[in-house]
Hints:
2 strands, 74% helix, mainly alpha, 3% strand, globular, two-stranded antiparallel sheet
Amino acid sequence: xxxxxxQALVNGLIVGFVYGLIGVGLNIIFGVLRVVNFSHGEFVxxxxxxxxxxxxxxxxxxxxxxxxxxxxxxxxxxxxxxxxIARLATSDDPETASLLxxxxxxxxxxxxxxxxxxAESRSLDFSIEPAFVMMGPLVIPTLRIVSLLIxxxxxxxxxxxxxxxxxxxALRAITMNRDAVQIVGVDVHKLSAIAFGLGLxxxxxxxVLTALIFPAFSPFSGADxxxxxxxLIVLGGLGHPVGALVASILFGMTEQVSAVYFNSSIAxxxxxxxxxxxxxxRPSGLFGRAAQR
Length: 293
């Protein structure tokens, strides 16, 4: 049982980092735009289908689909901001309007994927040699190790963007004080479009990686990932990407260990229990805005 627990913890660490891309992307969008994106999970699944189409119809290696999905969905998100999100700023209640709009978008996207790909679960029949890596008594699929390395690379790149570039510093400034950024002449709409595009790009990459490490996906899976994303940003603190990453690791380990001792469905219940406890002890989340100030 000890070996199984250790195996679950390692798998949970890897899965948690992949979930972290979902939480970080959702948190960037909320932190900069104050938009609660209920369609985030659908973009994750769209990323999975992007890898599926790239592999089965275009003969593109799914690992190559990772940078392609990041580029394609970042550009798509940049355009969608001006098409859908920017217009909500004129609403009397932009946050509620964005919530309703993204919820409607999630339904439309789910229905479209169901129409195009039907309800049958799909999978990526892809493997690399060796298929498994032995680490003492632990057996780790090579694709999971590769996925972990990809996430770590993206996290490092994201931190470099946020702390070493003008655009990243401006995005952090908008999160802290949007009005002050506008006063000094920064183009808030352009930066918001970049944030929305980056959030969707990270969601798509997460979709490719989940398709690689999980056995199947379907048009109905989006709501699960949206739920996981909200669990992560509430646990980590709204608008705080680092908090979302830490929360994702905790949630991933909890999910995998729960599958050993209980049932995999218990993980979401435990996740909600974690939310209740964290909100009771620290309403702003583990790394919430009160901690930043």
